[in-house]
């Protein structure tokens, strides 16, 4: 019998001679690498023949063992055919050996003699070990060689490929591993004597299996992966190899992220195959016992462990639910990845672990309580400190909603929390909250439409029905408690299907869905009777579900304002998901959703392509229908209800959709049918809306309007225009959008009629006041767009308008009356006519200016085309040379330039003649401008007619934009009005005009820059808003230099009106993008200006925080440190010191910045006496310590000590100076008291001269005269209770030669104060002594 085979640590260990000679080893190995190929092939064939021809146990024979060992040792160098033969022989022998184990067990029962059986068992065990060892060794050798070859191939990629004879290794590997897995799954207890296998045998298999698990390529092979999972499961579960397997699994999870899913699969397979979850439970408890702090540094390990737990919970939900308690403490850890994983685990458990309906009542109750506890944890985690965890929780809730695992009792709570998370500071949380609400709407249990009115009406009906049912069951009401919301739910918290079906049917019956026809009468009849769903309990359950649905609908409706705010977010995901949620809300008829969807139109101008695509897709899904008439109706209604901004966005979208073909020709035809009243029930307003959409579409396809020119004139300016006055304005817009060919056709066919209509629109009085100005604007623009000589018609319009204004009094008389401030001639009718006249004449002047510029451009284009055609017509080289010579001569003589100069001169003259006039002839608009200038100066008249002042100032501003001399002469008037006009409409209009004037005549407006900035302080919100817009436009487009008044714009950041504050922030945000960030250069001046302003400290801090936040470059931050430190030296105010130090603390400090701060210590050391200044510097120091290296950290600590030391010294100096000042003040007070006392005592001293003499002569009194006199002087005014004690102590103080402070009846706080009082007393005594001497003499 061969000696037993013992698994070696390494393959080469088999060559070592054992000391006890009691194990099988390689006695005579052969070095096959030195054999010739033919000899090697013969050698392998011999081994294969022996293995296949002889019995299975021949592997124990020393000769066979040595030869097989020799081949395995050099396996990587064998030719492919030899490898295949050897592997096939070993594998086939092992596959035959495994079934013999069962035959051995049968032989044990039949055989009486045990010795042969024991020998057979030993031989089988030996052969099993040897075959397993060699096969696994071959696998590990080949895998290591394959990985090294792959790396060499990657390095040598690009070189010429060499043809290498290879063998198909992957199928061989899978079959070998499957065979080893099969060997572990048979009954090996007889071979090894017990259920515990040989430790070396099992550890060798498990160690190599886990090593193979570290190879991602092997795990991609399904057969190999399946075999490895079986090996791990059998070893750990069947043979109790738990501890080592758990350690290896934890190592795999922590280090190899690709192995996580496969390890979870292996653990789950082990539990399902052997019905034993020991391995899974042990791993879960190991993870639970791990210190949560260890996951903070090992972020990759935390991520992998979290993924493993989620995968395991997905595969083994019941087992995980019974052991999840050991993981819950990790919710208190700092690793958000672990918390994310635990949230995912709880989500999987809630969805899968409690679906089993079996069990008694107590077990069901326990499961329900456990599920409820998990859901409460999930609700609590919605407020986690980490945004990633909050986002993950919301994602889990969305998954639960899709799985229908959220009960109605929790539905509204989840919806409320999700709606609250819409205002989260993190974009990823907001995105998850939006997706959750979308999912909740899609899977809501309340029905296909969620209108509040629908729920309230139906709920009221069922409550009445409940009241009818309750009196009929008085015994039940007294014996049973009222049914709660939970009673309407089944055991797992879900509402019964009967109630849901009844609720959905009720919703469809009570009010129409958006897809149903609006049959109001039928609905009202259906509302009278509600379906009978059963008894009292079922009615109560339905009412509970209706109330829950009503709360959900109200919750969704209340979130509409937040969604509108999110659509203005800087995060594209916020905008896109908000649009998707609003679309879903509209589908379910949530109140307010449709109005909010209108607000997505301005987002069409977004520069973010994804946002525009979201808006376009939403627009198509909402408004573009299959039926062209429905599409046309949707679009025209949208145009009717839109404001000016929305119409601009709508036009942009319509143009894009027309060019893409989304708005088809059939839809265009339907719009024409609405405009022409060809569809029954069409109103004048709908006709106007249809024409508006057609005008928008004509911008990208002008021929759309050409086929209905006559209809536009007949309907747009006909009787329907009096019903809907805005129809005339839309018709004017349509005329402007005509193509050039259509314009020519219009002039030939209906030109005179059209111009007569437009003239009557401008000069007539039939249009309402609020519509006239917009209509006249479009009419005048249309005249200048299509009339061949618009100035002739414009002059006629001005004269006719002028005659209608002054139809009672002549023009000259009116002019004189205006000059004389005679305001009695203006009646309200004349005021309206005058306002219209001023608007018309100013708008004509503006259009004339534009017309002149367009004519000049047209001439230049014609000249360019003519020159180009002339150059191309020269075909011969000689002519071409002559042409080039002529052009060169013209260039030298400047003839080409003179043509352009002539055009410019003509243009300037034409522009000047509009207002000022350039000849002796009368100028129509110029006379009106003179009249207007005088009218605007007549403040007494305009104060009585604010509407007239608005029109007059608007006209004045237009004339100023046209003519420079007129602008210069009226600038002071304009700024006077913009500052002092009582009407905020006038001030707002003038503010906007200032922007146009600054663009047109920047040199004239430059001296008035301060006055323009002053509009930012206007009390009117509209004026301030317009001022921010105007200044932003001018500065950002380099039309105005940023001067020292930019601090006014900075103050607007803290404006009380959110709109103005947002515009100011937007201005500085855009300004920071220009060049090298101008805010960096402006910041010190802004700081100085704001410090001197009476600004709240909180407002100052917010402004500086925002401005400094826009500076990103480290170099600029470092330079700002030096600039701000230098400002300390020129400032003496403590408040400004505080503000400068606060601004310094906001900077992002680098190592250089800290060094500059330390080097500039001399410039701010005097300010360290202020507590707040020192606190700000300490804040800088604390920030510096966080990133500082050891050397810099030492410097920072030294700097901190220096700051603290100077702070204490300055405080002491200030305290000393303050005390000295107090003492000086007290000394002055004592001297004044002494003088007053002398004045009071003088008459008595003059009467009693002897006493005075005796006092002066007495030497003892002279020695301590100061003290006695001071005491005398204080005795008279003093009335305190301490006087007796003072008089008793007086002699002692006199004997000591010092002054007793109490003798002055004054409390002192220190020795210095007493000393100063003594000095003051002595000085007062000497004064009195001098006075007495003078009186005696």
From TrEMBL:
Coiled coil regions in record: 1196-1230
Pfam family, any one: Cnd1_N
Major place of residence: nucleus
Limits of the Condensin complex subunit 1 C-terminal domain: 985-1144
Keyword annotations of the record: Cell cycle, Cell division, Chromosome, Coiled coil, DNA condensation, Mitosis, Nucleus
Feature: compositional bias, Acidic residues: 1243-1253, 1283-1293
GO cellular component, one term: nucleus
InterPro entries: ARM-like (IPR011989), ARM-type_fold (IPR016024), CND1/NCAPD3 (IPR026971), Cnd1_C (IPR032682), Condensin_cplx_su1 (IPR007673), Condensin_cplx_su1_N (IPR024324)
GO term, biological process aspect, one: chromosome condensation
Lineage top rank: taxon: Eukaryota
Keyword Coiled coil (UniProt): yes
Gene3D superfamilies: Leucine-rich Repeat Variant
Occurrences of domain Condensin complex subunit 1 N-terminal (ranges): 82-242
Feature: compositional bias, Basic and acidic residues: 1309-1320
UniProt region (Disordered), positions on chain: 468-495, 507-526, 1240-1337
Subcellular location(s) of the protein: Chromosome; Nucleus
Biased composition (Polar residues): 1295-1308
Protein task: Regulatory subunit of the condensin complex, a complex required for conversion of interphase chromatin into mitotic-like condense chromosomes. The condensin complex probably introduces positive supercoils into relaxed DNA in the presence of type I topoisomerases and converts nicked DNA into positive knotted forms in the presence of type II topoisomerases.
Entry's family note: Belongs to the CND1 (condensin subunit 1) family.
Protein name listed in UniProt: Condensin-1 complex subunit CAP-D2
């Amino acid at each position: 019998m061969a000696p037993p085979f013992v698994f070696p640590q390494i393959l080469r260990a088999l060559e070592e001679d054992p000391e006890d000679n009691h194990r099988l080893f390689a006695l005579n190995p052969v070095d096959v690498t030195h054999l010739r190929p033919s000899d090697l092939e013969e050698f392998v064939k011999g081994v294969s023949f022996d293995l296949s021809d002889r019995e299975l146990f021949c592997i124990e024979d020393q000769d066979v063992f040595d030869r097989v060992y020799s081949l395995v040792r050099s396996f990587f160098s064998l030719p492919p055919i030899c490898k295949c033969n050897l592997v096939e022989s070993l594998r086939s022998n092992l596959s035959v050996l495994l079934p013999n184990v069962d035959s051995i067990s049968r032989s044990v029962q039949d055989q009486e003699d045990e010795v042969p059986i024991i020998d057979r068992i030993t031989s089988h065990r030996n052969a099993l070990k040897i075959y397993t060892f060699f096969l696994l060794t071959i696998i590990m050798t080949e895998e290591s060689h394959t990985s090294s070859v792959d790396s060499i191939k990657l390095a040598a990629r690009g070189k010429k490929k060499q043809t290498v004879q290879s063998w198909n290794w992957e199928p061989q590997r899978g079959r070998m591993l499957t065979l080893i897995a099969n060997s572990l799954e048979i009954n090996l207890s007889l071979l090894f004597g017990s259920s515990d296998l040989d430790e070396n045998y099992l550890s060798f298999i498990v160690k190599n299996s886990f090593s193979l698990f570290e190879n991602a390529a092997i795990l991609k092979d399904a057969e190999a992966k399946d075999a490895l999972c079986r090996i791990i499961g059998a070893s750990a579960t069947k043979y109790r190899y738990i501890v080592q397997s758990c350690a290896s699994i934890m190592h795999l999870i922590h280090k190899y992220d690709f192995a996580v899913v496969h390890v979870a699969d292996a653990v789950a397979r082990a539990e399902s195959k052997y019905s034993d979850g020991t391995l899974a439970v042990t791993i879960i408890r190991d993870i639970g016992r791990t210190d949560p702090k260890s996951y903070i540094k090992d972020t990759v390990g935390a991520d992998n462990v979290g993924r493993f737990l989620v995968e395991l919970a997905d595969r083994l939900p019941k087992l995980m639910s019974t052991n999840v308690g050991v993981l819950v403490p990790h919710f208190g850890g700092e690793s958000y990845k672990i918390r994310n994983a635990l949230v995912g685990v709880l989500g999987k458990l809630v969805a899968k672990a409690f679906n089993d309906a079996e069990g008694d009542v107590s077990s069901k109750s326990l499961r329900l309580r456990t599920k409820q506890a998990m859901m409460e944890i999930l609700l609590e985690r919605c407020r986690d400190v980490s945004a990633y965890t909050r986002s993950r929780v919301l994602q889990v809730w969305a998954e639960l909603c899709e799985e229908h695992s959220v009960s109605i009792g929790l539905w509204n709570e989840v919806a409320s929390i999700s709606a609250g998370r819409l205002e989260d500071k993190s974009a990823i949380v907001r995105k998850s909250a939006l997706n959750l609400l979308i999912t909740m709407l899609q899977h809501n249990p309340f029905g296909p439409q969620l209108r509040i009115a629908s729920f309230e009406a139906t709920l009221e009906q069922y409550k009445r029905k409940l009241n009818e049912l309750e009196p009929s069951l008085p015994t039940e009401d007294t014996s049973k408690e009222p049914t709660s919301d939970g009673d309407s739910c089944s055991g797992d918290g879900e509402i019964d299907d009967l109630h849901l079906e009844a609720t959905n049917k009720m919703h469809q019956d009570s009010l129409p869905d958006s897809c149903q026809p609006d049959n109001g009468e039928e609905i009202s009849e259906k509302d009278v009777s509600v379906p009978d769903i059963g008894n009292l309990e079922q009615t109560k359950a339905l009412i509970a579900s209706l109330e829950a649905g009503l709360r959900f609908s109200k919750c969704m409706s209340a979130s509409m304002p937040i969604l509108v705010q999110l659509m203005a977010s800087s995060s594209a995901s916020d905008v896109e998901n908000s649009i998707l949620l609003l679309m879903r809300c509209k589908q379910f008829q949530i109140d307010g959703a449709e109005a909010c969807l209108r607000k997505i139109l301005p987002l069409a101008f977004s520069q973010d392509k994804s946002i525009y695509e979201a808006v376009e897709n939403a627009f198509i899904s909402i408004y573009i229908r299959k039926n062209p008439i429905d599409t046309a109706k949707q679009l025209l209604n949208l145009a009717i209800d839109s404001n000016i901004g929305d119409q601009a966005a709508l036009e942009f979208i319509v143009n894009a959709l027309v060019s893409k073909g989304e708005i088809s020709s059939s839809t265009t035809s339907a719009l024409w049918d609405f405009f022409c009243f060809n569809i029954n029930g069409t109103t004048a307003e709908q006709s106007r809306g249809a024409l508006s959409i057609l005008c928008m579409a004509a911008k990208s396809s002008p021929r759309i309007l050409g086929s209905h020119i006559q209809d536009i004139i007949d309907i747009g300016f006909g009787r329907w225009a009096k019903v809907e006055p805005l129809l005339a304005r839309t018709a004017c817009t349509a005329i402007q959008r005509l193509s050039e060919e259509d314009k020519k056709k219009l002039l030939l066919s209906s030109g005179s009629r059209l111009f007569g209509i437009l003239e009557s629109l401008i000069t007539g009085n039939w249009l309402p006041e609020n519509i006239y100005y917009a209509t006249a604007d479009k009419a005048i623009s249309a005249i200048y767009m299509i009339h061949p000589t618009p100035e002739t018609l414009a002059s006629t319009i001005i004269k006719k308008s002028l005659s209608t204004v002054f139809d009672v009094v002549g023009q000259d008389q009116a002019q004189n009356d205006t000059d004389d401030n005679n305001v009695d001639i203006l009646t309200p009718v004349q005021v309206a006519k005058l306002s219209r006249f001023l608007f018309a004449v100013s708008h004509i002047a503006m259009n004339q200016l534009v017309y002149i510029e367009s004519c000049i451009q047209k001439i230049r284009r014609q000249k360019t085309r003519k020159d180009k055609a002339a150059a191309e017509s020269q075909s011969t080289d000689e002519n071409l040379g002559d042409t080039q010579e002529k052009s060169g001569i013209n260039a030298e003589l400047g003839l080409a330039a003179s043509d352009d100069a002539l055009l410019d001169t003509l243009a300037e003259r034409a522009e000047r003649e509009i207002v000022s006039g350039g000849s002796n002839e009368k100028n129509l608009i110029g006379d009106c401008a003179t009249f207007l200038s005088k009218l605007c100066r007549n403040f007494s008249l305009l104060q009585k007619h604010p509407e007239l002042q608005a029109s007059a100032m608007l006209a004045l501003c237009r004339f100023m934009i046209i003519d420079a001399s007129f602008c210069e002469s009226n600038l002071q008037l304009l700024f006077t009005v913009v500052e002092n006009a009582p009407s905020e409409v006038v001030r707002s209009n003038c503010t906007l005009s200032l922007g146009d004037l600054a663009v047109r005549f920047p040199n004239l407006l430059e001296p008035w820059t301060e006055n323009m900035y002053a509009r930012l302080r206007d009390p009117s919100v509209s004026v301030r808003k317009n001022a921010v817009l105007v200044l932003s436009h001018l500065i950002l487009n380099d039309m105005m230099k940023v001067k020292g008044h930019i601090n006014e714009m900075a103050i607007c950041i803290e404006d009380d009106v959110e709109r103005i504050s947002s515009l100011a922030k937007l201005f500085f945000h855009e300004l920071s993008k220009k060049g090298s960030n101008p805010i960096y250069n402006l910041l010190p001046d802004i700081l100085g200006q704001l410090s001197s302003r009476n600004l709240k400290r909180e407002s100052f801090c917010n402004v500086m925080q925002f401005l400094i936040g826009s500076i990103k470059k480290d170099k600029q931050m470092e330079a700002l440190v030096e600039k701000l430190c230098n400002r300390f030296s020129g400032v003496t105010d403590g408040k400004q010191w505080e503000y400068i130090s606060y601004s310094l603390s906001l900077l992002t400090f680098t190592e250089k910045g800290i060094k500059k701060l330390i080097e500039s210590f001399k410039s701010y050391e005097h300010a360290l006496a202020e507590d707040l200044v020192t606190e700000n510097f300490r804040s800088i120091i604390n920030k510096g310590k966080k990133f500082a290296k050891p050397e810099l950290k030492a410097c920072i600590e030294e700097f901190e000590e220096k700051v603290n030391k100077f702070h204490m010294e300055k405080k002491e100096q200030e305290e000393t100076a303050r005390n000295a000042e107090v003492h000086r003040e007290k000394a002055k007070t004592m001297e004044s008291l002494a003088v007053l006392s002398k004045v009071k005592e003088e008459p008595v001293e003059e009467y009693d001269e002897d006493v005075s003499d005796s006092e002066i002569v007495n030497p003892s009194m002279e020695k301590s005269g100061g003290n006695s006199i001071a005491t005398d002087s204080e005795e008279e005014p003093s009335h305190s209770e301490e006087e007796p004690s003072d008089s008793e102590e007086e002699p002692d103080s006199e004997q000591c030669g010092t002054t007793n402070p109490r003798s002055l009846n004054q409390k002192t706080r220190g020795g210095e104060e007493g000393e100063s009082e003594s000095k003051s007393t002595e000085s007062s005594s000497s004064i009195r002594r001098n006075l007495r001497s003078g009186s005696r003499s």
